Amino acid sequence: MDEDNTVGIVKLVSKEGDIFPLSIEIAKLSNLVVTTLGEEEEHDTDDEDGNNVEIPLSNVRSSVLEKVVQYCVHYSKEPMTPITTPLQTLDMAKIVQKWYADFVDVDQVMMFELVTAANFMDIKPLLDLTCLAVSFYIKGKSADEIRRIFNISNESVSQQDAVITEMSEGADEEVV
Amino acid sequence: MPPSKKRQRLSQRQIRVRDLERDAARRSLNANGMNGSLPPLPSSEEDDVQIENGVESGGIGTLFGHPYGALPYGNIHLVDSSKNHPDYVRHSGLGNLRVLNDEQLLEILSFVDGPSLAGGIVNCSRFLYVAGHHEELWRDLVLRLWGEIGFDVPDKTHADGEAEKQSDGVQVNHNNSGCWKDIYALNHCKSKKSSHHPEKHKPVSIQGIYSDTFFRSWLCRSFAYHPSWLSTHTVQTIDHSKLTTKVFLEQFEETNTPLLIKGASSSWPALKKWNAQYLIETTRGKSFRATSGAAPLPAQFTMDNYSKYCKSATEEAPLYLFDRTFAAKCPQLLDDFDGALKESCPFWSCDAEHGHDLFGLLGEERRPDHQWLIIGPKRSGSCFHIDPNCTHAWNAPIIGRKRWIFYPPGVTPPGVHPSPDGDDVCMPISLGEWFLTFWDAHVERRSHPDVRKRPLECTACPGDVLFVPHGWWHLVLNIGDSDSGSFNDKGMSVALTRNYVSASNLSDVLRFLDTRKNQISGCRDRHEAVQPDELASEFRKALSHVEHCQQAADEEKKDCDSGHARLKGRWTELLEMAEAEAKKGWGCAAWTDIAQESFCSIPEKKNVEHKSSILERAKLQQTMDSNNTSATSSSCEVFTFSFL
């Protein structure tokens, strides 16, 4: 595999058929791209060095893919601070750089699509970031609040977890 | 934590097919993360408990139902969908989150703290009640908060097998309800300095939960052992009283053949003295390290807490205690077997004339790790691996029996995918998964046309010692004392093992030390040990040094200090022969010289401390910098060489 191929381009194709060209080096943040390109080179189906290969991403919409590409491009310039648990703070801007904190300031629909896309394209830092962002909707919230945020029907479960609820009442923001 | 997945190269066509499948899976909301579909179990109104040892026709016998009532996704097709969408429990229970699959959901929940999970999530809906109680979530919370410093494990208060209908009509399962949440609650209260003793968590069985993700991880830890899995005996077996050193060396060590020696350890004091109580008392005040392929971090346990953990451990891949420091921490434990071993198995004494335990010449501190105390709950064990550094090994169960499956060097077991250069291995991280998925393929291999490629199997009992020759793949399962799959028969399995170099594998070891430096293990995380780059030359120096010692001692007409001295005059010869062999090539088919890129990449785990030499070798890039612990991400779980 020619690692020096800085001019190589890979074309990511969204669900709607829109093409997002991306330099191979940047696109390799996605393990799906890495695997696909590796296979391509073996079969020599396209230009040399896996150039101009199209990768169909049939369950990623264009608006989502655009964001994913933005993420990869930015990552190549400023890699995201790795997210490690236990978290020391609930302030996203203190866990990752500001650009990334802003990146996930999106609505729920987009957020979930980013989770799915990151999972499908196997981009670990993006998956971590988006899952972390969703988890922020949950942390420190009561069951009622969580239901409201995610539009969950009110169902009673016969068993309450009294112990830990008691312990967390009145406590400072609990972080793990 | 997400279950293991295999990463394989895919053709264009396969990529397209996979796309379609994923699309379909996303629409159907429950992606089956890994294996093919599990057979649907008959759905029932009440949880059916215990099909001990039985295998239903076409189905998988289990010890008890899923504690929260989850069923495989395939069962959804058996549901009457005239009134409601069959998956309505999930739909209504997740709201907007339902566009994510269960693995993604668990990934999100893995970032949530304990009180939010217990106080918020599990009270939201039935589905979130089940998801929020996923055992691995609680395990990871405990390990992150208290893994390194140690934590208390509560006593088990209920008998297993008890299913109870409470006064409010709710059915509660006391069987195998998991333990990590209880561990969390106990330590959480402790950390808040509360004297409150939390009640043990009682799982409630919920109807209408269809999820391969939840079901699979439970199934992998609770399947009943089929009697046929435990009955084959094809490893050669000799009674200890009939085994001479000559026979052992010529017919087994030099031919690299596994051997079960019946009764070889029955004279060891450990066999009589060791039980849970003795171990707890002898090791009081000390902690030991336990790890698991699935856990993000290791954990420190006192023997007392580990024993309690073993009684109630319920994960797919339990924390396995593997400790190389036990002899230094508790010399009594070493005394309980070391002397007797030399008597009962003189071929494994460094006094032996043929040259045994040659790494010992480097000295106790400088040599790679070589002896371990291994403790685990029943049903724990190790999935397929080859022992490190080309060493031979002996393994002696002290409490509890072990089931072994061997594959000859160079013959890859089903379900295992080593990279061509041997650096990395892709395989299921849990034994349960291997047995459930690959058992049939394994049975076929027993009748391989080439006899030399067939697997070998046996059960080692306390009193026996097993010889594990270098290069052989092996899998070990702790099966407790009786064949019944009863989960009441819990408790710790305890064993001892040592890895060694002798004349018979010296040439391969030298070749390995010279050419596979990045695979050398057992030394990187101890600064006093000889590091991989120097091991080859230091080892050779140590070998030559003995000869000089011996010559000097001869001249002065006294005995050489070295316990290896009996090899008198033959050291040079031994080393020369081994060097010549090493230059020619590998003596064992486990190692070949194909140099290709590894296709199997390594997962990045949250907050993993890469001190373990095992994990450390999981590197994609060629960097040999042992301080650099970065790893690239992938969805493939790697379980590199580990010990039993």
Offer a few descriptive terms.
heterodimer, A: 176 residues, Potassium Channel Kv1.1, Chain A, 3-stranded mixed β-sheet, 9 helices, 3 strands, disordered C terminus, B: 644 residues, Jelly Rolls, 9-stranded mixed β-sheet, 21 helices, 31% helix, globular, disordered N terminus
Protein described:
Chain A: Keywords: Ubl conjugation pathway. Chain A: Pfam families: Skp1, Skp1_POZ. Chain A: Pathway: Protein modification; protein ubiquitination. The complex is a heterodimer of chains A (176) and B (644). By secondary structure, chain A is mainly alpha-helical. Chain A has helices at 24-27, 31-43, 62-77, 92-95, 98-103, 108-121, 124-136, 143-150, 162-168; strands spanning 9-13, 19-23, 53-56. Chain A has one domain (2-139): Potassium Channel Kv1.1, Chain A. Helix content of chain A is 48%, strand content 8%. A three-stranded mixed sheet of chain A has the order 2-1-3. Chain B has 644 residues and is an alpha+beta fold. Chain B folds into three domains: 23-223, no CATH class; 228-274 and 336-600, Jelly Rolls (Sandwich), CATH 2.60.120; 601-644, no CATH class. Chain B has helices at 12-28, 88-94, 102-109, 114-120, 126-132, 135-146, 180-191, 212-222, 227-231, 245-253, 269-273, 276-282, 303-312, 326-329, 331-335, 338-344, 431-445, 506-515, 532-555, 571-584, 613-616; strands at residues 163-165, 171-173, 236-239, 259-262, 287-291, 299-302, 320-323, 371-377, 381-385, 392-399, 401-407, 417-418, 425-426, 456-460, 465-468, 473-480, 492-500. In chain B, helix 10 links the parallel strand 3 and strand 4. Classes of the chains: A mainly alpha (176), B alpha+beta (644). At the A-B interface, helix 2, helix 6, helix 7, helix 8 and helix 9 of A face helix 1, helix 2, helix 3, helix 4 and helix 5 of B.
